[in-house]
Amino acid sequence: MVWDELGRDAKDANKGDRDKWIGVYIGILAVLLAVCATGGSNAAKDAMIKNIEASNLWNFFQAKNMRRHVLRVHADELELLLAANPGMPDTARTAIRDKVKSYKEQDKLLTSDPKTNEGLDELWKKGKALESERDLAMAKDPYFDYGQAMLQIAIVLASIVIITGGTMLLGISGLLGVLGALLTLNGFLMLWKVPFIG
Q1: 142-164 pLDDT per residue, tens
Q2: What distance in Å separates the CA atoms of residue 171 and residue 161, rounded to the nearest whole number?
Q3: CB 158 within 8 Å of CB 26
Q4: Domain count, the chain
């Protein structure tokens, strides 16, 4: 009888120690889950912000491109006017040539303006860079989503182990926890691309 009580006490002590370590493990998973959720939220916000910035920039690009087109049409019309009227007075011809020259200078600035960095060439590069940043943020987001799911399931399974004592569930929880952590890490660093994600 004494031996039974001692055996039971030892078992209870071992179970208590095991449950404490499982509790610590669950705490670690919860911290990883919080980091993963933050990363996912930031990736989604970054994708939205970069998409808005790119959209605004492309609208600006389009407006400048339309302005350049209008200038080119006006310059062409004035050059045709000069060609069609060879007997035009010199003062009128000079005024028209000056206007054509002004339009062509504006055209050059609209095409490329390194000083303000707002020429069409510069805007094109900025727009493509913003699209790349948006695409990267969108590519990261699913890794965080899957990472969160894996970590949440790992926490639930570990919690069940405390109640039921199943070792196999603890192993599955550990595997899912590692996968969730790796997916979270990949969401931040994009070290590899998983075919079915994103």
Answers
A1: 999 999 999 999 999 999 999 99
A2: 10
A3: yes
A4: 1
- Nearest by Cα to 125 from 114, 136, 137: 114
CA distance 185 to 152: 16
Do the Cβ atoms of 127 and 135 come closer than 8 Å?
no
What is residue 53's predicted lDDT score, i.e. its pLDDT?
98
Asked, for residue 93, whether it belongs to a domain, the answer is yes
Amino acid code (one letter) for 187 = G
Element (H, E) at 158: helix 120-164
Separation CA 129–CA 53 (nearest Å): 11
For 192, which DSSP code?
-
Residue 163's CB is within 10 A of a number of other CB atoms, namely 8
In a domain, 198, yes or no: no
pTM for the whole structure:
0.80
Closest CA to 180 of 197, 159, 163: 197
Task: Say if 181 falls within a structural domain.
Answer: yes
DSSP assigned state of 161: H
Q: Residue 112, SS3?
A: coil
- Binned at pLDDT 50, 70 and 90, residue 165 comes out as confident
Residues in the chain: 198
Q: For residue 63, what are the domain limits? A: 24-189
Per DSSP, the three-state class of 41 is helix
Task: Work out whether the CA dihedral 20, 22, 24, 30 comes out positive or negative.
Answer: negative
- Amino acid letter for position 102: S
